Structures are given as C-alpha cells and as structure tokens.
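Translate sequence into structure tokens.
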Amino acid sequence: MWNRKAWLLCGLLLARMPGAAAQAPTPDSILLSQAQEEFSQRRYSDSLNSFRAYLRLHPDDQDAWTRFAATYYHTGQAKQALVYLRKARPPAALRNYNQFYQALCYDALGDRNQANRILNRLIKTDDSFAEDDCSLFV
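Result follows.
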C-alpha cells in the first residue's frame, strides 16, 4: 500500500508532465470562441460584434479576418465582406474557404463570371472542401 509521500510524489510528477495541466482560457480566446460559436448558431450580428472586438486586440490574426468577412456575407453585406476577404491573408488551411466566400460575394454582387472563375479554380484543387462545396454552384 502506498503511503502519503508516494502519492504526493506521484501527483507532483504528473503535474509537471507537458500538457498535464489544462490552461485556463484567456479572455481573448473566449472572445474568439464566442464569435465562432455565434457564427455556427447563425447569430451573425452578434458574431460580427465579437469578431470586431477580438480583431481590435489581434489585428494580425488573418484567420479571424477571413471568418469576420464571411460573417459580413451572411449579414447581407457582400460588398463589405469582399473588401475584407481580399485584404485577408489567411493561412493555407483557410485559403480555399476565403476564395469560396469571395465567389459567393461576387455572385451576390451580380458578377457571376468572376464567381465561376474562382469556383472553377477551387474545383481543381485537391481540397475536399472545394470538391464538396464548389461543385454545387458551378
């Protein structure tokens, strides 16, 4: 049977293991999570406000700028969404997402040819996102 010192030693060792202690979320990460959750719940106006607050603190977060712009699209503001989408420099994992929303914006603004050019380019990528979502619009 283990004695109290053995249990304490075991607890100390476990606490020092990398990744063993969960880090408390920061106010910034909570704000970003809130914006993403609001987006997924289709509460786009709330999501815009949360993204805006987050981006004031993290103006270089290109992932957030892309998602912020997509939120503008869903509020019926395709022109403003396109402005932010074109300025954003998303990481590789979000480039096709950004391009997809650009195509949606061009279509909403009446430029179906530009929308189709973007979607056709996306279909040629190896990204399953492009195959699943873009083929519906071409």
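Note: Residues 96 and 127 are 8 Å apart (CA to CA).
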